[in-house]
Amino acid sequence: MARSVGLSCAQVVAVAAELADEHGLATLTLAQVAARLGVKLPSLYNHVDGLPGLRRDLAVLAVGELGEQLARSAIGRAGDAAVLAVARAYRAYVLAHPGRYAATVRAPAADDAELQRLSRRVVEVVVAVLAPYGLTDDDAIHAVRGLRSLAHGFATLEAAGGFGLALDRDESFERLVGAYIVGLRGGAGCLSDASAHA
Known about the structure:
Blueprint: H1 9-23, H2 30-37, H3 50-74, H4 79-96, H5 98-102, H6 113-130, H7 137-159, H8 169-186, H9 190-196
């Protein structure tokens, strides 16, 4: 058990992220993490606040990674191209890291300043990408939620093997994002206006 010497919180979280991606967040245990690190389970409590604390630390890791990936994808792009790039980057992150991504789905606790800050960063990236469409205030947040829901829903279904037909999933995703972009061009109130006349 000599590997416990010099063990850090970052190492524990990195191994937990690997295990979550391999086997799913729901099945992650501290015993698995300890076994992979080659340490005794009680030594993990020097670095994480039990399983709930580890899941929170995984969320911090994943939200930070996701924010960076989305920001990088938008560099040098604007308008439709930027929206498509961000949607593709979101999907790619979910597919590459399904376990750690699962830790990001729940909104951060109100008193978790670090996770709140990282989550705001993700929202700010998407708001900036959507700026050319003239959305403001609540309309911009509705649009951010829409893009997140689109990418999350498609990618999580895809990661779970939810698309069984032999049809190009990339094309399906591109069409879905294209329809979202058409909605952005139509204005923030297009759906609410339509429902008022239904």
